[in-house]
Amino acid sequence: MTDLGVSTPANDGDAIAIDGGCASGSTLRDAAERAGKSEILARYAADYPKGPHDQPQSMCPAFGSLRVGLRMRRTATILSGSACCVYGLTFTSHFYGARRSVGYVPFNSESLVTGKLFEDIRDAVHEMADPALYDTIVVTNLCVPTASGVPLQLLPDQIDGVRIIGIDVPGFGIPTHAEAKDVLAGAMLAYARKEVEAGPVAAPKTRADRPTITLLGEMFPVDPIGIGQMLEPLGLAVGPNVPTREWRELYSALDCAAVAAIHPFYTASVREFEAAGRTVLPSAPVGRDGTAAWLDAVGAACGITQAQVDAAKNKFLPAIGAALANAPIKGRITVSGYEGSELLVARLLIESGATVPYVGTACPRTKWSDPDREWLEARGCTVQYRASLENDLAAVDAFQPDLAIGTTPVVQHAKAKAIPALYFTNLISARPLMGVAGAGSLATVVNAALGNQHRFDRMRDFFEGVGSGDTAGIWEDTPRLRPEFKAKMAGKRIAAAKAEEAIGA
């Protein structure tokens, strides 16, 4: 996450420079391949293809898998990584209300090189594996242990009935924290599927009396309820939401009629569902058009008669249309984020009346989002997968929206231009999007932001003339930019990096 400033030999004896952790991706990736991690890195490269940038531009990806584990009942988490990374991840997890301890196995160059770190992890797992307290222990290798080949696959599958799951989540292999959620969710589904194949498993606390649709991807708590109401006329019920909150829900998730890939980037999880023989549906019941298409897809996948599907559509589509009409949104809006639901939000905005010329998502293109992409492109919207921060900022500059929805730096960039802006994660993702409840949910916050343009105009006028960037502030003399000094310092940094790289080689 930040500059580690340590040099650590790989297990094969070659010295590697660990300069910057996940920021020195190619060095660490090369070391990881030499240390026996080439197979897992190749699988990550196939599951989570890189985009225009090969480094995470949001928070540490491991936060995604950490969050999934911390939300699960009777599940313990152990991190193996540099202390500064573990500190940052732990801090962030508690900032988001984890209310649970995170285990940590520290290391130094000696324990890393000699393999003692793996022994320490194994000892920690044995010490923690109390079946009275836990169903599962998740051990996560961060960048440096992954690059050094710490073999978590050699941990026991279970200890006294406590399942042990080891995963590698390096910043140089997983592009976003959203996809890291899939790494752990997929690993848990794979473990649960093997348990199911081996024999009887624990029954769910409650079991629906109808076939179920499993929902894939985190969503606002009201959304599964609304989806369940729309499934009822089809003779179906809503199933668990993956990532799940407890282990036995994984069995129920696998025991479904079909899977709805609400978030389309859960590649590893989809692989497990397909291995279990389940049909996976794209898109989501968002807006009038999206809900109609989704109900048709559910009906086709589950063998529901068209008459039943039409009855469900006749019941819910007018209500969704009315909710959209009663909460119109007028304005030009750009959308960007890293949650994986950006295309769904854009659809809802357009059906609410907004003009959306650009949608950028940090997640990759998959066939599960194709219906949304095609719908958006048919309405003149540019869809950018694996969008970089530079893509998103350029979109704000090019389209000059009335409102920019995006990540923190996009919001800052827009506000600096006196453009109202909303942070996607906290202000957009924290609302229902599906069905009738989602139809009018964005209007309140979006229209309030659009109505703040006059405040931004006043702030821009108030600060007019104070400069920007390096020249911002009140000065007796106007500061002079000295690009030659910047070039000189940049040259020194490049030379120092090359010298350090030469020593490491």
Question: Which helices and strands, and how do they pair?
Answer:
Layout: E1 6-9, E2 15-18, H1 25-47, H2 62-70, E3 75-80, H3 83-95, E4 103-104, H4 109-114, H5 116-128, E5 136-141, H6 143-147, E6 158-159, E7 162-168, H7 177-198, E8 212-216, H8 222-231, E9 237-242, H9 248-254, E10 258-260, H10 267-275, E11 279-281, H11 287-302, H12 306-326, E12 332-337, H13 342-351, E13 355-361, H14 370-377, E14 382-384, H15 389-399, E15 403-406, H16 408-416, E16 421-423, H17 424-428, H18 435-439, H19 443-450, H20 453-462, H21 483-504
Parallel strand pairs: 3-4, 3-5, 5-7, 8-9, 8-10, 10-11, 12-13, 12-15, 13-14, 15-16
Antiparallel strand pairs: 1-2, 6-7
Structural commentary:
- The chain is α/β, with parallel strands linked by helices and 505 residues long.
- 48% of the residues lie in helices and 14% in strands.
- Strand 6 and strand 7 form a beta hairpin.
- Helix 7 runs parallel beside helix 10 and helix 13 packs across helix 14.
- The longest helix is centred in the first third of the chain and has 23 residues.
Q: What are the defining features of this structure?
A:
alpha/beta, single chain, 21 helices, disordered N terminus, 505 residues, five-stranded mixed sheet, 48% helix
Summarize the structure.
This protein has 505 residues and is α/β, with parallel strands linked by helices.
Q: Rg from C-alpha positions?
A: 25 Å
Count of distinct strands = 16
Give the DSSP E fraction (strand runs of 2 or more residues): 5-15%
Low-confidence stretches: 1-20
How far apart lie the N and C ends?
Answer: 23 Å
Q: State the share of residues found in helices, binned by percent.
A: 40-55%
Strand order of the largest sheet: 4-3-5-7-6
**What does the main sheet amount to?**
5 strands, mixed
Residue-averaged pLDDT: 89
Shape designation: flat
Count of helical stretches? 21
Query: Helix/strand/pairing class, anyone?
Result: alpha/beta
